[in-house]
Amino acid sequence: MMERHEKWMVENGRMYKDEGEKVKRFNIFKENVEYIESFNEAASKPYKLAVNRFADLTNAEFHNSRNGYRTGPKASVSSPFRYANVSAAPASIDWRKKGAVTPVKDQGQCVDGTCNSKKESSDAAKITGYEDVPSNSESALLKAVVNQPISVAIDASGSDFQFYSSGVFTGECGTELDHGVTAVGYGAASDGTKYWIVKNSWGTSWGEDGYIRMQRDVGAAEGLSALPWKLLIQQPEIGMKFVQTYYKSDVYMDSYVYIYIYVNYVLSKN
After folding, report:
1. What's the pLDDT tens digit per position in 129-157?
2. Which SS3 state, helix, strand or coil, does residue 84 take?
3. Distances 96 to 92, 149, 166, 178, 258 between C-alpha atoms, Å
4. Is residue 32 very low, low, confident or very high in pLDDT (cuts 50, 70, 90)?
5. Which of 79, 100, 210, 213 is most buried, taking the most CB atoms under 10 A from its CB?
6. Largest Cα–Cα distance in the chain?
7. CB 144 within 8 A of CB 230
8. CATH of the domain at 121
């Protein structure tokens, strides 16, 4: 196991401040590897775990360094859910195939999304508002995802989420929403298990090239829950385009987050 840890350190560019820290991290690595291998050998779930670059972190350390969603005051909304009357939805949809999703990024330890907020010198779009997607309603979320990618919040605190590698994630999900992601589609596996296609921000080495398929139609409040985010951009005469932009969020209070949505866009002046 020590040789395996040494190899993992080289592959992930990991260095420790002293021998004491190295021993500590080795023990955590060993415990995580044993858990991952035991889980996969049991083959009791439709998803797999893998030893990734987070393997020398305890789950608590990982959670504190990666998951920083902060709930703010409940947003007030003056208009009804615009997709409420959607009656026909395709069996599956993947906005990546429509050129609507930017490459997966790695947020690093910028848990609240603020680290790069001052690097943008010009706006690619202007934000004029947002709308609610009714929370804890998968039917409402599906109606919205039929029309565009949607930003959502999840509880990503578990070890299985930390080491998720592939398959449809059916692991335990709590109700303490701690991480912002983007639902970019949905579908069903060969065994009929329905899932959401969710874009994460932990780099492409995590999950399925940076994505996770999360079980849908679970009939519970836990798991994938829609945040009251959907941004409205004016200037419809310019055209329609998928854009990525920063915005100051009433939901995230003072933080800035990436949002990927189907909007009317405004060309930058620069």
Report:
1. 666 677 777 888 888 899 888 888 788 88
2. coil
3. 12, 9, 18, 25, 16
4. very high
5. 213
6. 63
7. yes
8. 3.90.70.10
